[in-house]
Amino acid sequence: MPESQTAAPLREDVPPAAGPYAAYDPQLSNEDLAPLRKQHWSSYNLFAFWMSDVHSIGGYVTAGSLFALGLASWQVLVALLVGIVIVNVFCNLVAKPSQLTGVPYPVINRAVFGVKGANIPAIIRGLIAVAWYGVQTFLASEALVIVFLKFFPGMAPLYDVEKSGFLGLSTLGWICYGILWVAQAALFWNGMESIRKFIDFAGPAVYIVMLVLAIYLVSKAGIGNISLNLSSGEPLDFASSIPVMISAIALVVSYFSGPMLNFGDFARYGKSYSAVKKGNFLGLPVNFLFFSLLTVITASATIPVFGHLITDPVKTVQEIDSVFAVLLGGLTFVIATVGINIVANFISPAFDFSNVSPQKISWRAGGMIAAVGSVILTPWNWYSNDDAIHYTLGVLGALIGPLFGILIAGYYIISQQKVWVDDMYTLKSTGRYWFRNGYNPNAVKAVAISGAISIASVLIPKILLDTGATSVNATWIGNYSWFLGCGLGLVVFWFLERRSPMISLEPTGTEADLNVSEGLLSL
User: Would you say residue 342 has pLDDT above 70?
Assistant: First the structure.
């Protein structure tokens, strides 16, 4: 074998039961968690991935909600663009180790947390994804309800939760939720190739419909009646707008923090790191800027057409007195939300839960655990409850930053971009990532310390305000929990590794060691 090769060819011709794979401990590996033998996703596939992630109902509502902060339209666009550029940079950082090694997010964490300790970030990320999976399925089902009622108005009594409901959801709600639950499960069960084809279609499809919707509304409103100043809050002077803009930027980063953390699950399929970076650039800054402009224009046109501002595209379509428009728009936004749900909230727990017990939980089984768990959580009951979201997703979300910071510190600063792939699949005490009984105590401590502070930034200001202990509303601090947790996680882990090193870069002399550095694999 040549001295050095690029990542994909080295693994492509290795049969599942031969070569280095044969020595992998079954408690750490299955066919889904093992390094890929072929990486073939192009820049377009990653571009389409981000289109599916961006073009969701939640994405439109989030972008539209920034106008209520009192910002001018140009300030909203600047905040959106700056936020998404930050997301782009961070996604490139988290993508590199997984693309070069061909392994998913929970596996690359073994090089930082230890072969057993990697289950800590995997379970945390998996639980967050399960909760959001239920929420996104519920949002998509509400769009489907609109389609049903437009075509079958006689079903309206079934949408009354008081007269016809179970566990807080109406009968029609259950029907629509069930349809989408089965559809998503079926798509997921067919594997990553089917998911890739779906997102290749879903992202552009939503763009086409949104363009048609924007053109239709602008033509109805008249181009002269379109105003890009949609600010509905108290107008702010420039000095006062700066902290609000920073808060808006933080909101954008926080919105994408989940898929950003486990982006390695998708970057591993990229045929090269440069292809991943190109796909990220097209799918994030370029795509998001156009998406933001389209959102502003569409929302602006709703004022002269309907008499009030509508930032929710589903409600916009609902206002149009056309059966075809409701059908096309409703189904399109269902597709959009299914797209983000699959890529952001189904695939992540599939890998994460499989990592806990590879031989008992396959990738498909891990995904179905998430799907079933999403129903048990009854997301429709707590999604509209601000306190429930704050104390559940707020706490879990506060842990995403620390996990991100620790991974970045571990790979780029401590390990200097070197990963010994085969050592991530062995439970031998001589393995490089066995650390101390399979755990890196520095990583565990870093999660505990930075996570506790990050969670406190979310909970304490709200508890003090709710209990009347203070009249000062400092809940805005929680908007920056991701940045706080990320920075603390990075610094604390780096400090602990400097004081008591666990990650070693010294060669072991074992021929089976596979060193990944600067994009090259060498035996």
Answer: yes
How many angstroms separate the CA atoms of 441 and 434, rounded? 11
Spatial distance between the Cα atoms of 54 and 284, rounded to a whole number of angstroms: 8
Cβ atoms 449, 492 nearer than 8 A: yes
CA distance 165 to 413: 54
What pTM, to 2 d.p., does this model score?
0.84
Distance CA 252, CA 255 (A): 5
Q: CA 305, CA 277: separation in Å to the nearest integer?
A: 41
SS3 at position 269: coil
* Spatial distance between the Cα atoms of 115 and 119, rounded to a whole number of angstroms: 8
Task: With cut-offs at 50, 70 and 90, classify the pLDDT of residue 458.
Answer: confident
- Under 8 Å between Cβ of 316 and 295: no
| Closest to 198 in 3D by CA, of 313, 338, 58, 41 | 338
AA letter at 416: Q
**Cβ(340)–Cβ(120) under 8 Å?**
no
Strand, coil or helix: what is 432?
Answer: coil
How far is 111 from 264, CA to CA, in rounded Å? 14
Give the type of residue at 192: M
For the sheet with 419-420, list strands across it: 4-5, 520-522, 515-517, 419-420
Per-residue pLDDT reduced to its tens digit, 114-166: 999 999 999 998 888 888 888 888 888 887 888 888 888 888 899 888 888 88
